[in-house]
């Protein structure tokens, strides 16, 4: 009998039973108040008169009126870069001990996002909330005695002056509490290996030594790791190596595009739990089964605002127009795409994280990530967001019985001078590209009236190429790096798409 596991499970259930639901709107007001109080004497707080905002009759309205929107380039050039020049108390008291490197989905140059001790405490608190929520998933007691494979970036952080730098998953893993280290795999030694392929090779070599009950990481890289372990040990599925694997905590992107190819690596069903841990903080977590939606964490050092995701409010670089309207938590509507803004205990203010979300259940505060502000295809009025593309590709998977975990699309003129959407679909299954193009076009017409209108006017059609999904991973490796927080960009402009096609042609 799993005595220790039963004890842990009982403690978790007791904690959940005694945790009451709070008013999320009031929680958010209090979070904003605490953020403003703590940062009012920083250079940023003085510049934007936080003291006056705190005294305003409507604090949230005053905050929105006095502080502009910031994307990364704007806040870094105007404020965060001052940390690297030796200043302190810039956007948050003191100096951040870490900077999270995030290449996001565009370009080779990493963003450097401050990570304060307050943020690390918030991430740890959110992690405890996630563990507590496991009591809702009807897991057996022995699950709580198994090890957890956290497939993030290297924990070997780089010292830069008075701070350390690395990806957020590496920073978080390097700060795991001592009591968790015996559960944590691949362990400190392997986790410090910087080179992705070498790290995964070591994981494969040691896989049989571990009793893994849960996985955690971005789907695309998790798939690659699992395939490597399966290949190395010459087995048909991962449960032949880890028979007690029961949970996968996905994160960073929507899981659905990877669901079919992920399931093919399993020997039995695994409970998938979505999480939303970005370089800027731990924003949401799935706290119940039978959904892919995640509950916003409204009491943990992050204040949320939402801008309706409409073409007239989005600049070409993915930033917001100055006149884009903002709504607060009590004003959101279900099934509407919003650009997510956050203000945090790391000194991000009205920050455009780059993701779009929608509320699937306002009462439960549940959201889903629907795409990226930069992945909005509107060259000829098609107004396609990533979630519409994901849905259309999933329909292809069902119709043709294929797996398509990765894709990329670009709108450009063909040799006949007409505009087409050029798609590269990552699949190793046999399928006729022309039939795929017809079905993809049909699915998008049915899902999006703007696309349907565009197809009757400036958009001539769809062209499809199929390639091995590994090409997308190799492209990432060539342009950024493998593993960690790196995500594949779904929509490319013509110059980047040309480079991608040239890369594919060399394979």
Automatic annotation (TrEMBL):
Residues 297-362 form the GH3 middle domain. This is Putative auxin-regulated protein. It comes from Christiangramia flava JLT2011. GO terms for molecular function: acid-amino acid ligase activity. Residues 390-494 form the GH3 C-terminal domain. InterPro entries: GH3, GH3_C, GH3_M. It holds the Pfam family GH3_C. One of its GO terms (cellular component) is cytoplasm. PANTHER family: GH3 DOMAIN-CONTAINING PROTEIN.
